[in-house]
Every structure is written in C-alpha cells, then in structure tokens.
Design goal:
mainly beta; 22-stranded antiparallel barrel
C-alpha cells in the first residue's frame, strides 16, 4: 500500500512540474512563431533504446539525423562516422547519473556550450562549485583546420557526496589534430587519457576508504584519401588500455587489465545514382584479472557491403550484408552472414516513414562496458549479442508550425542477449545472458516550439513487453529483464527569459526496475528534475547555475550504490 501511495505521489509531482513548466511557457508565447521547417527523415540510429531525447538542431551538443545527398555531396568524411543501418544492440536502459564519467572525455573535448561557429579559434575555461564539496572545471583550445578542427582540452570533476560510497573523482586530457598531406589525402589523430575513482560497497556495506579506481587511455589514427571525384577510402587503427582496481585503506585488490586493438577500412564509391559502401574491421581484446589465472581474449572480424539508392524524391532505400566472425580464447567461435535494410518514404512533405530490418552479431568492448557501469565485475564474458532479426518502423510528421510528432515500434528476436544484475557475494554488477529471447519497445514523442524562446521535447518509451523465451518444456516464459524499466518519460524545456537568460529544465520519470532475473525485488520508480541556467555577463563571460535532483530524490542507479541527491552549484565560463 505504501509503495502504491508513493508512486501516486511521484506521478502527482511529475504532473505538477509539467503544468508549471507549461504555464511559464504560455506566459512567454506571445513572441514571433518560427516558420515551418521541412520535415527530416527519421534517423536510422536507435538512441531511444537508451532513453535519449531525439536530437534537435537547436542543441549543438546533439547529433542531427544522418543525411546523405547522392550526387551532390562528395565529402564522405562528413558521414564517415555515421552509425550502421542495423539498430544498436539493446543497451537495457539504466538511469545515467549526471556525474558519471565519460570514456571519450566530454565528447572529444568539444565545449558543452553553443559555439557561434566552427570556423574560428576558441579558447574556453569553466569552473563551478557547489554543495557536498562538489566542483568541476574544464579548459580547452580549438582551432579550425581544413574540413575539420584541432583541439586540446582537459577536465576534472570531484565530489565528497552525501554518502560515504557516493564520492567520486575523475579527470582527463584529450586532443585531436588533422594534417593534410596533399589535396586528396588527410590524416587525423585522436587521443584521450583518463583517471577516475568511485566509492564502493562490500557485502552491502562500504569499507572505510574503499573505492574502485580506473586508469585508461586510447589513441587512434585515421587516413582519408579521395581516389577521384566519386570514390574515396579510409583506414584507421585504434589502440587502448584500461585498468580497474579495488583499493581498501591503501592496498590494491581485484586488479583487472584490458587491452584493445581495432583496425578498420572503408571504401565509398558512386555508380550513377547508387552509392556503394564497403567496410571491414578487425577488433582484438584481451583481459587479465587477478581474480583467476586465465587471460581472456576476444576477436571480432567483419566484412560488409552497403548499397544506397534513391528511387524517387519520395523514396530511398538501402540494403546490405555483413559477414561477422567472433572467436573467444580459441575455444568457442561463431560466424554468420547478416543482412540488413532500410526504406525511407515521404508520401507528402510533412510526413516521413522509415522501415528498418536488421540482424547480426554486436560486440561490446570492455571499455564501453565500463562506461555503461563503473561497478562492473571483473569476470566479464567476452561474447557478442546475436540478433536473429529486428524490425523497426519510425514515423515523423509536422502537423503544424509549432508541433513535430514522432512514433516508433521495435521488435527484436535474439539468439543471445546480455543484461546486468548484482552479484550478492561481491555486490559488483555482473553481465549475464539469455538465449532465444524476444524484446520490444514503443516510443512516442513530440517537439513543441511555442515561440523562438520556448521549446518542449517530450517522449514516452514503453518497455512493458519484456523478454519472452521458451521454458523447460517448450512453453513460453516471460522475463522482466533486470534494470530495464517499465517505461521512461522524459520532458525537457528550453526557455529564454529576458532575452539572454537561458533556462533548461529536464524532468524524468522512470518506471520500476527488477533487481535480478526471476526475482520479485525491484528498484522503485524514480522522478528526477535538473535545472540549468546561463546568463551572459559580457562578451566573454557567462554565469552558470545548476540544481541537480531538485526534489532531493533518494534512488540508486545500481543496486546498493546510492546516487547523488540535491546539489546546488554555481560558477563561470570564459570564452575567447
């Protein structure tokens, strides 16, 4: 009864916040309405799996949908990093902490503010401080180069936290530089080093000064070459290492070392209206843990071909096939051909429809697993997820000048699927798997632009259809996958007051999440509100204020690891 009463209160608080935000927006809605924009095809990425809001052009930190103009734009490097047409492996949504560390280092060091233009040099620095001895700082320099830019940046974040196990610290440096060898050839190098630590739990209780430490680095180099006006290619090599260790009162325990090498090739060409893309990559990863005497090794190779063709101004299609082969410690191997396809259809200018078909192996390196969960266990299975077939339909329309709507439905049949759950002996989070399982999700979203100064971004993602697999006697059995919520409801409002006071409000309501597969215990639903405000104090200085977890909600992203509660911070940013 008390749990039901708590959920009702959370919903009431959520609705009250939404009403207040709407009222503020309506009070400001007398300004000029933006002109209607042309509809864009839905992106072929599946960011909704992680609960991300749809990228919008007004936010420079978010990535716009992939666009390919056949026969007009031959600079394939612009789309060189676009995602494969196959949907990403399900990330099994977990709440992302505002203070969780990012392996890539603040998106390759790009400033988190809106740059006026990428064709001018910029030097920036920011410093903020707040309650529970929380502070963060960042600095960097960016200089444009032909077709790209060079930059170097660094950052540090630290907090003592409200709880003994919620203290954290992470800092790092990264950089990027390009060099044009001749008119047709360009080289690009990127690098990042990072160090972090987080408070730890041990059998449900935190030991004094116990923490999880991470030290890692990554370096990549790519070369791009235009063979002729319609053909270009690329080659790249990435190497990186990451070490995790537990530390209790100054003594190191549970050390874990990881090394990764990734080689990739790409070739893009055009034949009449068709675009032809060839890809190849090889990834090798080794992991050595003092928890056992084995050194794990995983190897993933892939060859792929992709064909894109515009049938008309209303319809474009893409299809391809990958051949992937994975081997683990020379004892287990899997290989398969994996077809995929995409169809984009615009029956009328305000309506766009995309149909996606996917299949194949998807391998998640150890460094990416740590990025998802800094409390992961040392013994991580080095195996890929295996999708038999996935189907997704996405619809986007703009019924009025102020409103854009989108909807999507996705169903995936998996040979194998990995998920997180806690090990009750170590309280580290393990990565376990299920075989022969089905999962699905439905998303509804809207972008409401009331005025030039007031925009809303709303989504509802339903995960209530959980995994379904065959039981011991062949009968269907339903699973609620751990850490995958019943639903996710985010609302973001961007409001400009007094011409230059920018206010960002993000409210999130998460459904309950199971702690373990087959168990009844669950993490309760969570309602969070974060507020950020920015006010220019001159041409070069901006005042920053933020409130994290406005209602001081007590919650855990991972079982037994409480997250930050209310934090108020303020500071300045300087840009030259």
């Amino acid at each position: 009864m008390s749990e039901r009463f708590g959920k009702k209160n959370e919903m009431k608080t959520f609705l009250l916040t939404f009403i207040i935000m709407s009222f503020m927006a309506l009070r400001l809605s007398a300004q000029k309405i933006n002109p209607q924009t042309e509809i864009e095809l839905p992106s072929d990425s599946t960011g909704s799996v992680r609960g991300d809001l749809k990228p919008e052009p007004k936010n420079p930190d978010l990535e716009l949908p992939d666009v390919l103009i056949l026969g007009q734009d031959r600079s394939h490097r612009i789309i060189n990093d676009k995602k494969n047409l196959t949907p990403e492996t399900p990330a099994l949504t977990a709440i992302r902490s505002e203070y969780s560390s990012d392996w890539t280092g603040l998106d390759e060091g790009k400033p988190s503010f809106a740059a006026d233009s990428l064709n001018k040099s910029q030097t920036w620095g920011s410093l903020t401080g707040g309650t529970v001895y929380t502070f963060s700082g960042a600095a960097g320099h960016r200089r444009p180069i032909p077709e790209d830019d060079m930059l170097i940046s660094g950052w540090v974040n630290r907090s003592e936290g409200q709880f003994a196990n919620s203290k954290y610290a992470h800092l790092g440096l990264n950089g990027k530089v390009g060099y044009r060898l001749d008119e047709r050839t360009m080289m690009m190098a990127r690098g990042v080093v990072q160090r972090s630590f987080y408070g730890m739990m041990q059998n449900g209780y935190r030991r004094q000064d116990s923490k999880r430490q991470m030290v890692g680095g990554k370096l990549s180099a790519d070369i791009f070459h235009d063979f002729n006006a319609i053909t270009d290619g690329s080659a790249g090599l990435e190497i990186g290492g990451l070490s995790l260790a537990g530390d209790t009162t100054g003594s190191t325990a549970d050390e874990n070392s990881n090394f990764l090498m990734h080689f990739r090739l790409g070739l893009n060409s055009q034949y009449r209206k068709s675009q032809l893309i060839f890809k190849a990559n090889y990834l090798r990863e080794t992991n050595d843990s003092d928890a056992d005497t084995l050194t794990q090794a995983g190897r993933m190779g892939r060859l792929g071909f992709e064909w894109l063709y515009p049938f008309s101004s209303k319809m474009t299609a893409a299809a391809g096939i990958n051949y992937a082969s994975f081997a683990h410690d020379d004892s287990s191997a899997i290989s398969r051909f994996s077809p995929f396809a995409r169809l984009n259809f615009i029956p009328s200018p305000p309506l766009g429809i995309t149909l996606l078909l996917s299949s194949g192996l998807q391998y998640t390196p150890f460094s990416e697993l740590w990025r998802q969960n800094q409390y992961l266990a040392h013994n991580i299975p080095f195996d890929p997820t295996d999708e038999k077939i996935g189907v997704k339909i996405k619809v986007e329309t703009q019924p009025s000048k102020m409103v854009r709507l989108r909807a999507s439905a996705q169903k995936q049949w998996m040979n194998s699927l990995y998920f997180w759950q806690a090990d009750t002996t170590t309280w580290l989070i393990t990565r376990d798997h299920l075989n022969d399982i089905e999962i699905s999700e439905i998303e509804l979203g809207a972008v409401i632009e009331l005025t030039n100064s007031v925009q809303f971004y709303i989504s509802y993602i339903d995960y209530s259809d959980q995994g379904i697999s065959a039981g011991p006697q062949g009968e269907p059995s339903s699973y609620k996958i751990p850490y995958r919520p019943d639903f996710y409801l985010p609302i973001r409002a961007d409001i400009t007051l007094l011409h230059d006071l920018n206010l960002g409000i993000r409210a999130e309501l998460w459904g309950a999440r199971k702690k373990r597969l087959g168990g009844e215990e669950q993490l309760p639903s969570v309602f969070l509100v974060n507020i950020d405000a920015q006010k220019p104090l001159g041409q070069h200085v901006t005042a920053l204020v933020s409130i994290h977890n406005l209602f001081n909600t007590s919650y855990s992203q991972w079982e037994n690891y409480p997250e930050m509660r209310f934090i108020f911070s303020a500071g300045v940013r300087v840009v030259f």
